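Per reviewer request, we include the raw input and output of the structure prediction for the construct analysed in the revised manuscript.
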Amino acid sequence: MYQVKTFNAIAKTGLETFDDNFKINQSETPDAYLIRSVNLLEEKFPTSLKTIVRCGVGFNNVPLDRATENGIAVFNTPGSNANAVKEIVISLMIATARNLFAANDYSNKHTEADISQRTEKDKTKFNGTELAGKRLAVIGLGNVGARVANAALALGMKVIGYDPYLSSNAAWRIDNKVKRASSIRRAVKNADFVTVHVPKNDDTIGLISTTEMTAMKDDVVLFNYSRIGIVDNKAAVEGVKSGKISHYNTDFGEPILADQPNITITPHIGGSTLEAESNGAVQGANTVMNYLESGDTTNSVNLPQMNLPFEAQYRLTLIHKNVPNMVGQISTEMANRGINIENMSNAARGSVAYTIIDVNSIESDDREDLLNRLNSIKEIHRVRVIEHS
């Protein structure tokens, strides 16, 4: 029986996904945390905690290094809110192109009983453009970027994408009519609209700044529905003021953006739909179950991703430092107890490694002795034994 503790309001559909082997919020020594936006950066983790699953994409509210040192696998749910973000970007693209925000402001200020003549005279101020035939640059072609690119094609736009890290699996999701650029500058050069959809890390902070904006055509419309800091907001404000950027749409407000003309800020709601919350909760629940019952680390953000068929009676999983002779030490300890290894796999991610070992027989005395010995190796963060149900 596994114990799961939830934070924030996890969608009911997600909680109902757990089978009878899992109990929700019934113990203060949980095996898993299922979270959304709760800040865990200063949280003291119980020794029982084996995994933290974030129902959403961002995970900057989880202390990854400390979690890893405690042998805790951390996951997110990529793609669960991708359609929601796609839809808000496309809707803002249409609203911006048709000057709907300015038209709404005008209508709210002119509410006289009969303003038909004035409206007829003034409405040309709000003449917009159609998206069909316009050029869109998509920076980052992952779960969200691919959907935005495909939707834009369906609207008759010309789409060019840039993503130097595009995986083969991700490439299958992208319409072959999406052209590929070899650099950001080439992608944005003639674009009428530029949208950014990349993860936030040391390489992507300030990814779109003055240099990249200078390469854009005048009157470009820019979007940041990725993460704060991916687009340099100061440079974006300067671009709007100079006329280089006709409109900047972002989901991440800062004081420098407040009350600026031709800048639209939404309060971090890009992925906030009922459907996205449900998708994230269901995916999160399945992730908890898969990891605790099989050691599957698909979509882990701090461990190498491994997904192996569980066909033996027992499985040992080990989170440890990525240093020489770890696999040798582990296998030697098992051989010393006469435990035959049916299958073994090891992978690394930076300074951390993950090892899976399948065996068909392990006596209870040998198991306890083996776990004690393995846990005494200082480079090992956590050892688990999972019995195949």
